């Protein structure tokens, strides 16, 4: 029996993707560096579909129909290079190597270019949805050549999550585009979780609403514009009581948030692209600060807060909902803006409506909002920024007074709300007629002759600060 696809790397993600493929009718060849994982999968789930057991990569390759499709699902980083190096001499021109792990998009670009020289297709695929998604239908973001998608796309679309029957899988662009889009997805996920955390903190600290009560509020919010997987599970976590102590679960968990690195990658990449992705950056920094437990303990003894008191408006809960909505929207706008910047930098023809459509089901940031975002970018006239799409410009404007009240109250009460406040600053920065960047330019010209442009004339200028302060035309070298 020849298999339609081979999977190498059968830890939880690879095993679940292999099972998903088999459950959807494909014959799947199985391989893992150590054969125990292959046999464990076959023992437990061998009856779920047609599997071919292999012990070596040569056996795996020999078991596949041509052109071959080999999906690598091993630990990201050096192991992916090692598996590619072993596979490459066993393959033939036209074969497709797929990396569906969380690889950095620059690695994917490098690997794609190297394998293209050998006439092999290398497809970096972003997969979101965790273990359960991999088994039941993840959101899938494939890159690589357009041609490879003709052979691979139908399989990936079949095993992907569906939103109203539409697959959450589309070819997003060449070489590393798939992994880039997945990286930004993860960055948005960081921001989404941080704004939820800020809403929880404000509701608890400013308004004294206990977790169990907040669970009901989040359940209610999940029926409106905030409806999403993360809001749904927030209600679940807040409603949970610790069996050992009888306390709210959230009170017995150490308040240091971990990270595996994709948020950091997003911020590094945003900085390199010059894309103002402040919400995602603040989310990554917030996790970093939460993890500095030693410094935090000392600061609790030493640093004074001088918190004031605040008269909260009657419908403060609704204010917080609106602040959360507006800040979340800004994070999505910034993430999407970063995609636009990357498309220009790497020559990807990213279709923003299609990318938003992929995130509507299967992935961690799945949300009703994404359907509206998709529609905004499907419109004939594409918005220059998500916030400028007519529907969103209107909805965020409606949230602004509440957003300002919540940020002001949090500041007065000493509650850190880095994403609520930086998102509001981004919003104001975007809409402000004059920014103090004019003064920055003046300073740069004085200390470094960096030159400036004038509002009333074309050209580039420099003031002779050390001489008579007259202005001269300059050649712009920056
Ligand atoms: P993992 O723990 O990242 O990796 C374990 C697998 O990699 C095992 O099959 C292991 O083989 C293999 N491996 C490690 N080093 C190897 C090497 N040098 N050569 C060959 N094989 C090697 O597995 P995972 O959690 O299933 O994740 C797989 C990929 O999916 C990762 O890139 C991960 O970031 C990504 N991902 C994970 C999730 C999730 O929720 N876990 C979600 C999305 C994406 P042995 O059994 O022989 O040790």
TrEMBL record:
The UniProt record lists the keyword Oxidoreductase: yes
Entry EC no(s): 1.1.1.44
Pfam families: 6PGD, NAD_binding_2
GO annotation (BP), single: pentose-phosphate shunt
GO molecular function terms noted in the UniProt entry: NADP binding; phosphogluconate dehydrogenase (decarboxylating) activity
Keyword terms of this UniProt record: Gluconate utilization, NADP, Oxidoreductase, Pentose shunt
Record-annotated 6-phosphogluconate dehydrogenase C-terminal domain positions: 178-466
Transmembrane segments: none
Membership in a protein family: Belongs to the 6-phosphogluconate dehydrogenase family.
Subunit relationships: Homodimer.
UniProt-recorded name of the protein: 6-phosphogluconate dehydrogenase, decarboxylating
Taxonomic source organism: Arthrobacter pigmenti
């Amino acid at each position: 029996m020849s298999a339609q696809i081979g999977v190498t790397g059968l830890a939880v993600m690879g095993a679940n993707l292999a099972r998903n493929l088999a459950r959807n009718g494909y014959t799947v060849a199985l391989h893992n560096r150590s054969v125990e994982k292959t046999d464990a999968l076959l023992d437990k789930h061998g009856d779920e579909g047609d599997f071919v057991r292999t012990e070596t990569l040569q056996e795996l390759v020999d078991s596949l129909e041509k052109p071959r499709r080999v999906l690598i699902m091993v630990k990201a980083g050096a192991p992916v290079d090692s598996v590619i190096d072993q596979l490459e001499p066993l393959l033939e021109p036209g074969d497709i190597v797929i990396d569906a792990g969380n690889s950095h998009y620059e690695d994917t670009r490098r690997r794609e270019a190297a394998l293209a020289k050998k006439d092999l297709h290398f497809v970096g695929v972003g997969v979101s949805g965790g273990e359960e998604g991999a088994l039941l239908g993840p959101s899938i973001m494939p890159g690589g050549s357009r041609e490879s998608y003709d052979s691979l796309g139908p399989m990936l679309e079949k095993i992907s999550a569906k939103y109203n029957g539409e697959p959450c899988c589309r070819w997003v662009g060449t070489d590393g585009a798939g992994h880039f889009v997945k990286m930004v997805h993860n960055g948005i996920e960081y921001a989404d979780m941080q704004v939820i955390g800020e809403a929880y903190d404000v509701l608890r600290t400013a308004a004294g609403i206990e977790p169990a009560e907040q669970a009901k509020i989040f359940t209610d919010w999940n029926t409106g514009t905030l409806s999403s997987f993360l809001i749904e599970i927030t209600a679940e976590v807040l409603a949970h009581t610790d069996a050992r102590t009888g306390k709210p679960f959230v009170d017995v968990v150490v308040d240091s948030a971990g990270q595996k690195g994709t948020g950091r990658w997003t911020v590094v990449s945003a900085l390199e692209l010059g894309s103002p992705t402040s919400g995602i950056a603040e989310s990554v920094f917030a996790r970093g600060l939460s993890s500095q437990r030693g410094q935090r303990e000392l600061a609790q003894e030493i640093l004074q807060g001088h918190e004031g008191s605040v008269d909260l408006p009657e419908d403060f809960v609704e204010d917080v909902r609106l602040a959360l909505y507006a800040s979340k929207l800004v994070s999505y706008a910034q993430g999407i803006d970063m995609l636009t910047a990357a498309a220009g930098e790497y020559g990807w023809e990213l279709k923003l409506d299609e990318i938003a459509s992929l995130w509507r089901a299967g992935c961690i940031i799945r949300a009703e909002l994404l359907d509206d975002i998709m529609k905004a970018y499907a419109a004939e006239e594409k918005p220059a920024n998500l916030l400028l799409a007519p529907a969103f410009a209107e909805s965020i404007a409606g949230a602004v007074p509440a957003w300002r009240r919540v940020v002001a109250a949090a500041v007065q009460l000493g509650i850190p709300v880095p994403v609520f406040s930086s998102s509001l600053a981004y919003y104001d920065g975007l809409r402000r007629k004059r920014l103090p960047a004019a003064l920055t330019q003046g300073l740069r010209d004085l200390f470094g002759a960096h030159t400036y442009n004038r509002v009333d004339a074309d050209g580039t200028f420099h003031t002779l600060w050390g001489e008579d302060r007259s202005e001269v035309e300059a050649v712009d070298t920056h």
